[in-house]
Amino acid sequence: MPNFLSRSYAATREFVADTTLGDTGFFFHFSAYVLVNAILIAINLLTTPDRLWFYWPLLGWGIGILAHGLAVKFSAEERVRRRARSRHPGGA
Fold first, then answer.
1. Is residue 70 part of a domain?
2. Considering the domain boundaries, does residue 92 fall inside one?
3. Fewer CB atoms near the end CB (10 Å): N or C, the chain?
4. Which domain holds residue 24?
5. What angle, rounded to 10 degrees, do the helices at 55-73 and 24-47 form?
6. Are the C-beta atoms of residues 33 and 51 closer than 8 Å to each other?
7. Which DSSP symbol is given to 26?
């Protein structure tokens, strides 16, 4: 991985470490959701602007994202991680 990408990724991970996005699985799931749905919106608006359908995958996948986020936010494992981070800032 190029050095600038590595630094950017590390900075992003540090910035979101204490949030739900700090969970690697959720981070990648949410990133894919944003990217794919942006592409679907563009395809829909460019090909059939008179018939909007992009909101169906947006809504369906959004329910999955919400469930994943809630599972991460309220999991016992995440509480342990947050407690460890608060005791050892910069570590864990």
1. yes
2. no
3. N
4. 3-87
5. 170
6. no
7. H
Is the overall model pTM greater than 0.70, yes or no?
no
Please spell the DSSP secondary structure of 46-70, one letter per residue.
Answer: HH-TTS--THHHHHHHHHHHHHHHH
pLDDT tens by residue, 29-80: 888 999 999 999 999 999 999 999 999 999 999 999 999 888 888 877 767 6
Q: How far apart are CA 79 and CA 82, in angstroms?
A: 5
Domain membership of residue 31 (yes or no) is: yes
Residue type, 62: G
> How many beta carbons lie within 10 A of that of residue 72, not counting itself?
19
Give the alpha-carbon dihedral of 91, 68, 19, 41, to 10 degrees.
130
Distance (Å) of CA 90 to CA 17, 86, 87: 10, 9, 10
